[in-house]
Amino acid sequence: QVLLQNTPVILLDEPTSSLDIGHESQLLQMLRDLCREGRGVLTAVHNLNSAAEYCDRIIMLHQGRIVSSGTPREVFTEEHLRSWYQTEVRLGTNEATGSLVVTALPKRSSGAGVHVHLIGGAGSAVALTRELYLLGCTISGGAAHELDSDAKIWESLGAEYVTVPAFGEIDRFSFQRAEAMVKQADITILCSFPVGSGNQANLELAKRAKRLVIAEEPLERTFFTSEAQQLFESLKDNSPSVPTHDIADLVRELAGRKNKE
User: Fold this and answer.
1) 67 compared with 219, residue with greater pLDDT
2) How many CB atoms lie within 10 A of CB 118?
3) What is the pLDDT of residues 101-145, one digit of tens each?
4) How far apart are CA 162 and CA 174, in angstroms?
5) Which secondary-structure segment (H or E) carries 229?
6) Cβ contact 178:185 at 8 Å
7) From the CB of residue 142, how many other CB atoms can be counted at a distance below 10 Å?
8) Residues facing 144 on adjacent strands
């Protein structure tokens, strides 16, 4: 009935609160079409992603006061949202529409106090990254190739990491950046990923760790050069191999010893 009225301005109070995702999208699209026809819509919403997708301007209310106004990207910053909602969030982009996407991160355990550096590739560090992040560890990663799913999850969690161009070799500058993280970390995990000339330097990087653990997977590792195979065998001779599903327990033990010191 409201939409059928030929009024220049429409005021709506949480019009999508009882709608499923399909009807919510349909309604908001209709409202956007009316705006394009020259009418105005002012609506209250709680779904930040819907607001970012369909609204041209956001007015953020907090405890009854206007605390910010502007475009979605001006208002929805990680710093603002963390302060207003008292939760950790990450911002991304909807690849289909280009609009902002707000993701609330799950609550982490507190007090782990352990810095873990992950040397991964080909998605080998994704599951461990999630598990160790929720455990409360400080995560760093690299060097990984751009667009690798390991790099994507490190970015989504706000972790410090190093990347090199896709299909490129790890250059000296990238190696040195990653080396600094390895030396700062309490423990470095060498994940199971295929090793060739492009990422062979990651095995050299693992040699710099103050404490290295080799993640053991059921599948056999793949090496595309004999030199990489030899480097890995030398690492195995001097570092423990631990099944991937046991690494979180190992980090918990390390955290317990660290907290007692």
Assistant:
1) 67
2) 30
3) 999 988 877 656 899 999 999 999 999 999 999 999 999 999 999
4) 7
5) helix 226-238
6) no
7) 31
8) 163
